[in-house]
# Entry
Amino acid sequence: MIREFKNLTPAEQQIMFDAIPLITILVAGADDDMDEVELAEAQRLADIRSYNNTNLIGAFYEIIDNDLTGRIMSLVAELPNALAPRQEEVVARLTKLNDVLAKIPEPFGYLYYKDFVSFGHHVAESHGGFMRFMTVGPEEAKVMDLPMLTPVPRPSEVDYPDLP
# Structure
């Protein structure tokens, strides 16, 4: 078990573990065309973050990395096929993260929030454009900052001077 999840119920832990697959579905599917490049980038990024020893939430990514693509496909199968209802359902599920992140002790709530937004940006930038420049389409731009999440403020620099 991840130590910062010890105060979370099993359902709340599942909300956390589904965050990355849902963020991938939200952002990659925003243009109604979730393709292999975006899925591969999400898997690659989870893999990199699981091996980053300086990452305080690396243990989370070790679990996520095991079957990220499989979990994405499983969630896609249970979500509506049409774009608008699918996006609404994903947003509703991601909104549940607000209560869960508030229960995670400092500095981890902040780190997860910041990491989730960063993940959304990477997925949005993974496809299209010329040599990956100008790659974020208008639909992806609307969701890549995860506006359904309440920003978690950075903890005190005195207590946590090495946080990003």
